[in-house]
């Protein structure tokens, strides 16, 4: 069972990460039995959550170049290739060919280039295929050699094309595997270390002879696909026909990506009423995405509501600086705020906005817990339905291929996701691929980053290797910085902490009253640390917004530093804003005096390494009342 762990150390399960492979038809199958030959498939375990997909033409060409460059020929050139996303520095995919774990395709963040790391099944199959390059035969045998160094005296023969540092195929006494050469071919027989054995096994592995096409994969999985499509359609139809939604327009959240494309097609099959489409054009969308979204809706007679903000991102850039994975101010100003305005117009008369959404739980930790239907905590009045939440990427693609749907051309160019082209959440591999496709846009952004970096004492290598994509660097990037000797500490001092009111108490379209402000010098992760004392909370990675449901109202805090408080009455809004400000001061100015630990009746508070209030918090307020730092709040709240 594949287990993931959340920040509070709680666990949840995903089903076992695997698929099956029909060795007779040589196709992947998503249930145990092949629908073509009716034979049972062989189980193929998958690393990570198992969101397996078909290799794109671009990725297939990458693999072809890497294999040809190493071994001179490519035995998998015309084969069906699956890629399974796994944890890594950047873009990292497990390669599945003929039901074998062939290797790992990864983007190396040091060299900013793709690399191929063989796996032992792939090495065995390459040896069995009759390759005569990069092969070394040794006198030893047995699995005990894995991870060890081989002396030149044990080399019986080798091909004459081996250079120091090459990946080599290794054979011995009933033993097959691979390693790395320490010497050129002419020196392999000398005493001393000659080969570093990576992995060897005693069994063989072979490629299969059948060469299926996508039509064969579709046929082999037809019963499974028919069932999950039926379930998805019934989910949409069942909710859309409920009493609360019978007179409600049905919208589809359309990003121009594969998941929302399938969701849109399913929705049109499920409901009889006209379907409208929301498309958030942030002004920094890929040109291909904008063209595709407009063309697809026009050709299929679908009403497109394009929420467009033009130069909003560039206008706000001088104030906020480059966005980061942990500082997504751009989502608030370019996406959430405009869409919120449109939905408020739809729900202004008290109606609910029913939106069908293509989010899938395999995509990220935050999305792994989505339910069939949820009220959107970030946009009041919007109810979202997630009909393909349990689908894997391969199922999405099988649906697209079966239905012969036109899809965003970026997927054929090596992109796994299609969001904003300068999004910090984008993989570096895709960011540089974007640079190849749109050099003029890439140059505009890169020149800005270089100028920004220079102003903050950060050199060109900091920008080139993608360190700008984080405010607080994760361990993998700190290790990379140390390896490459790159300075990651900006010259500019930290922004001074402060909270200011940017708007008075005013009526809100969705009811009640709103009060707005601005926080400086506080990162989103620090705000999350104290959210439990204010109420139930949820954080959206996609939108960069933390929602807190307090007893007297709602609080929204954005990565941009914008804070919005909504409550039923004027005084409730003022009081909730003041309490929120007080808690933010506590987390930012905490002296770790430990007084709060002594008064908390449920032991919900942690002080190391930073102040954090856990899920056990009952919001009794005793810790706030005893906090010396909370007295500073008077300097701010008195201005309200």
What does this structure look like?
By secondary structure, the chain is α+β, with helices and mostly antiparallel strands. It folds into 4 domains: 1-129, no CATH class; 137-205, PUA domain (Archaeosine Trna-guanine Transglycosylase, Chain: A, domain 4, Roll); 221-410, 3-Layer(aba) Sandwich (Rossmann fold), CATH 3.40.50; 498-637, TATA-Binding Protein. It is 31% helix and 24% strand. The protein has 18 helices and 30 strands. The strands form 7 sheets. It has a 6-stranded mixed sheet. A hairpin with a 2-residue loop joins β14 and β15 (175-181). The longest helix is centred in the last third of the chain and has 20 residues, at 570-589.
Gross morphology: globular
Query: Any idea how many domains?
Result: 4
**Class inferred from helices and paired strands:** alpha+beta
The second-level CATH architecture of the largest domain is 3-Layer(aba) Sandwich
Look at the structure and give the CATH class of the largest domain.
Alpha Beta
Kindly report the spatial arrangement of strands forming the biggest sheet: 12-16-15-14-11-13
CATH topology term of the largest domain: Rossmann fold
User: What is the beta-strand fraction?
Assistant: 15-25%
Terminal CA distance: 53 Å
How is this fold's topology laid out?
Layout: E1 2-5, E2 11-14, E3 18-22, E4 27-29, E5 42-45, E6 52-54, H1 57-71, E7 81-85, E8 92-97, E9 100-108, E10 113-118, H2 120-128, E11 135-138, E12 149-151, E13 155-158, E14 167-172, E15 175-181, E16 193-201, H3 214-220, H4 222-240, E17 250-253, H5 258-270, E18 275-281, H6 287-299, E19 303-308, H7 312-320, H8 329-347, E20 353-356, E21 373-375, E22 382-385, H9 393-403, H10 428-437, H11 439-455, H12 460-464, H13 475-484, E23 498-507, E24 513-520, H14 524-529, E25 536-540, E26 545-549, E27 553-558, E28 562-567, H15 570-589, H16 595-599, E29 605-606, E30 612-613, H17 622-626, H18 634-637
Parallel strand pairs: 11-14, 17-18, 17-20, 18-19, 20-22
Antiparallel strand pairs: 1-2, 3-4, 3-5, 6-7, 7-8, 8-9, 9-10, 11-13, 12-16, 14-15, 15-16, 21-22, 23-24, 24-28, 25-26, 26-27, 27-28, 29-30
Helix pairs in contact: 4-5, 5-9, 7-8, 10-11
